[in-house]
Specification:
The chain is built from no helices and 32 strands. It is an all-beta fold and 339 residues long. The strands form 4 sheets. Strands 3-6-9-12-15-18-21-24-27-30 form a 10-stranded parallel sheet, with no helix packed on it. It has a 10-stranded parallel sheet with strand order 4-7-10-13-16-19-22-25-28-31, with no helix packed on it. A 10-stranded parallel sheet has the order 5-8-11-14-17-20-23-26-29-32, with no helix packed on it. A hairpin with a 3-residue loop joins strand 1 and strand 2. It is globular. The chain starts with 17 loop residues before the first strand and ends in a 17-residue tail after the last strand. The N terminus is likely disordered.
């Protein structure tokens, strides 16, 4: 948990660091998903696309939407269990989906309510074809997103480009009101798999983030996990592969993990596998500084495994395992050709 946030069950991650003057960060995530209800909620009445829901909601069938958002949360403490089913949007967007809609279509919108849990207690729960798969809004403290597949159409062999879309988007400062946890999801076929945007006190752990890319490089970043103008977050234990479209020049470059912009400070990037991405491995750019990057495996990324554009200084521990790097940041010797 974050010091001062709501208490949550689960295993305490043994990573802590003083953040600013008073905040000490320690994140609780478990393989089952911290903060999730321990039992499935009862079956729900028939649910329609665009519906506002509250309480305990469990899908009993796939939900097929046409040019429409999926579900909108209507009260604190709402649990949405996909129960192995899919929320799918088809329409006039990219490759017949809703990606790239004139008005953004959202699979599940927390709608600024607290203690919202979006999950699937049965394998197979998926949110497919939306501009934002799950949108955790800035006032939604204590939210959890877990054990879901967030996906969209595969890229065609020849463009058009994929529009700027995010599997999971988290915004807002959650340090005082309750940690947001994003864990054990699979995210693919977006331009950004997981995006933290002006967000604090978010734990991102044990996700599989792969094959996100295909956006117009002049308009959007293609990246697995992006931490943008965000502070005091933990990105830990994720497997991040085959993301990016090969743009290797800032601002900022495609990467497996991107930390960028001046307000991106005091984040921890720990124990991730970041390999075979079409761009950089872990990238710090555009003034991101005072972030801790430790014990990650970064190999076979198209450009540098460990990259900085030199605009900010970060702590890159020698326990990172990587082969190629920029200098002077990271410091010489963080990566070695034989690692």
């Amino acid at each position: 948990m974050f010091l001062g946030s709501r208490s949550r069950g689960g295993r305490l991650w043994p990573i802590s660091k003083s953040l600013g003057a008073s905040v000490t960060l320690a994140v609780a995530l478990t393989a089952m998903g911290a903060g999730a209800p321990q039992a499935a909620p009862p079956p729900s009445p028939t649910i329609a696309c665009g519906q506002t829901v509250s309480g305990s909601v469990r899908l009993e069938a796939d939900l097929h939407c046409t040019n429409s958002s999926g579900l909108v949360v209507g009260a604190d403490g709402t649990s949405i269990d996909l129960n192995g089913h899919e929320i799918v949007c088809n329409g006039s967007g990219f490759q017949g989906s809703c990606q790239g809609s004139a008005t953004a279509k959202i699979g599940v919108d927390t709608n600024n309510y607290d203690d919202v849990h979006v999950f699937s207690h049965v394998a197979g729960g998926a949110i497919d074809g939306f501009d934002r798969g799950v949108y955790v809004r800035g006032l939604s403290d204590g939210a959890t997103v877990m054990r879901l597949t967030l996906t969209g159409p595969d890229l065609p062999a020849v463009p058009p480009y994929r529009p700027a879309v995010f599997g999971i988007l988290v915004e807002g400062d959650h340090c005082a009101g309750g940690t947001v946890l994003v864990s054990n999801n699979e995210i693919e076929n977006q331009t950004t798999g997981i995006r933290l945007n002006v967000a604090s006190c978010v734990g991102v752990g044990s996700n599989s983030v792969h094959d996100n890319g295909g956006g117009d490089p002049a308009l959007t970043l293609n990246v697995g996990i992006r931490v943008r103008n965000s502070s005091s977050n933990v990105v830990r234990g994720n497997v991040i592969t085959h993301n990016g479209s090969g743009v290797i020049a800032p601002p900022p470059p495609d990467a497996g993990i991107s930390l960028d912009n001046p307000a991106t400070t005091s984040n921890q990037v720990v124990g991730n596998e970041v390999s075979d991405n079409n761009g950089e491995g872990i990238s710090t750019a555009q003034g991101a500084s005072d972030n801790t990057i430790v014990n990650n495996t970064m190999r076979a990324n198209a450009q540098f495994d460990a990259y900085s554009d030199g605009a900010g200084s970060n702590s890159w521990n020698n326990n990172n395992r990587c082969q190629t790097q920029t200098t002077p940041d990271p410091p010489a010797g963080v990566c070695n050709p034989d690692e």
